[in-house]
Design goal:
Blueprint lengths: L9 E5 L4 H12 L3 E6 L2 H14 L5 E5 L5 H15 L4 E4 L18 H26 L2 E6 L12 H21 L4 E8 L6 H7 L2 H11 L9 H11 L11 E4 L7
Parallel strand pairs: 1-2, 1-4, 2-3, 4-5, 5-6, 6-7
Helix pairs in contact: 1-2, 1-8, 3-4, 4-5
Length: 258
């Protein structure tokens, strides 16, 4: 199966204005790809573009505003990206929860559905929207950043874990369906990611901070950073990974081996 080098690829990064998404956009841009950042806020998107251009001055990079919970917005965003890129070769999804971990007994029942949906639906909507074009062109790579919480049950992560587990099963089943058309779908499952908005969210909450401090003590290879995940996303989208699909790869410094 032939694949384009990264330097010839058109890349979409959902959640590209911060954290792992921003670092992924930078690494793809440095490799010569044409990159579109997707996010909900124009100001953050504009700031992210400046950061990418500072790292890769000659990069072809732009921003598209989208709320990936809204299927109509997702459809329009994919149409815009297809028009700009000509072909979507790579999709990277890096969205996550907006609240820190909570024990189930401290979560109001009316917030269960919206919290699960904010984690679960954005990558599913975006995957569904790009798969039609990728299958038609008989090529493409999708990389979803999920979480080890979807592999290992952890107190405080009932909602995050269930949503991440659902994302993983959706992606794995879709990988089996799409492999005949040359489309590959893989997942990255970190535990902690240092120096990101998610890390700041956790550090600001006493329960979550204590919980993740204990986990960090097990990361004898070092707590993962955005650069680690972005490098793996780049690899999984490259010809070197042309036979890899349906995998959920933990990048967690040794916290767990699930």
């Amino acid at each position: 199966m032939s694949m384009k080098p990264i330097s010839e690829c058109g890349v979409m990064v959902l959640g590209g204005s911060a954290g792992v998404g921003l670092e992924s956009a930078m690494q793809f841009a440095e490799a010569g790809a044409r990159v579109i950042l997707l996010g909900r806020g124009e100001p953050r998107g504009a700031a992210a573009l400046e950061m990418v251009r500072a790292r890769a001055p000659n990069a072809d990079v732009s921003f598209v505003q989208v709320d990936a919970l809204d299927t109509a917005q997702v459809g329009r965003a994919v149409e815009i990206c297809e028009a700009r890129l000509g072909m979507i070769d790579v999709l990277v999804c890096t969205t996550g929860p907006s609240q820190p971990p909570r024990l189930l007994s401290n979560i109001p029942i009316e917030s269960i559905r919206p919290r699960i949906e904010e984690i679960f639906l954005p990558p599913l909507h975006m995957m569904h929207a790009v798969l039609l074009g990728m299958r038609r062109q008989r090529s493409g790579s999708i990389v979803i950043v999920a979480s080890d919480a979807g592999k290992l049950a952890t107190p405080g992560e009932t909602l995050v874990g269930s949503a991440m587990g659902a994302i993983m099963m959706f992606a794995k089943a879709a990988a089996l369906e799409a492999k005949r058309e040359g489309v590959r779908i893989n997942l990255l499952t970190p535990s902690l990611i240092a120096n990101t908005p998610g890390a700041a969210l956790i550090a600001a909450d006493p329960f979550a901070a204590k919980m993740f401090q204990k986990a960090a003590s097990l990361a004898h290879l070092g707590v993962a950073e955005a650069e680690d995940l972005a490098a793996m996303a780049l690899y999984l989208s490259s010809p070197a990974a042309r036979r890899i699909t349906g995998q959920a790869i933990s990048i967690n410094g040794g916290i767990s081996v699930a």
